[in-house]
Amino acid sequence: MIQPIPKPAPVRERDKEAKQVGIVYDDATLVFVHERVLEEILDYSEQDATRELGGFLVGGVYVDSREYVEIAHYVPAVDVKSRAASLTFTHETWAAMTREVQRRYPEDMVVGWHHTHPNFGVFLSGYDLFVHKNFFSEPWQVAMVVDPQRTEFGFFQWRCGEIVDCGFVCVRDGGHGAAEPAECSGDKVD
Ligand SMILES: [Zn+2]
What we know:
Shape: globular
Largest sheet: 10 strands, mixed
Bound molecules: zinc ion
Number of helices: 3
CATH superfamily: Cytidine Deaminase, domain 2
Radius of gyration: 16 Å
Mean pLDDT: 90
């Protein structure tokens, strides 16, 4: 069981600006996403609109006034079995991801996963729920689904033992006065 590390939430850092998107539950882990990571994931998601793409959300789980998860990096999945409406992480996918995370982000860990639903909307299918329950079962692990054709995305998390869609807090480096980012104010399923 991984214990959250005490660390001030990104909203407390003076050079950061945070914006809540969607509904953030009081009784679930707070999700912080760095805007540059959101941009990276959305760009990657648009690279192929004919089949599903996926990857891993990397960061940490911390505690400040409450427990929160911080998504600080993204690692695209390799060696996936990808079709128009399905994505399978193979043994090679997991092995490569573990190597990549340990090499590039030795201080961090996998806090969730991402995949695309080209033109069929933002939700978790029965198979997606199976993947989340079996491979992302920690209460702070999240799933992100992007529909690159409809330009929609959303996050899902554990809440009271169920997997529900959720809002997040977008963190932008650089502080006040910066232009409003499209990603932080973008579409969100409700
Ligand atoms: Zn799916």
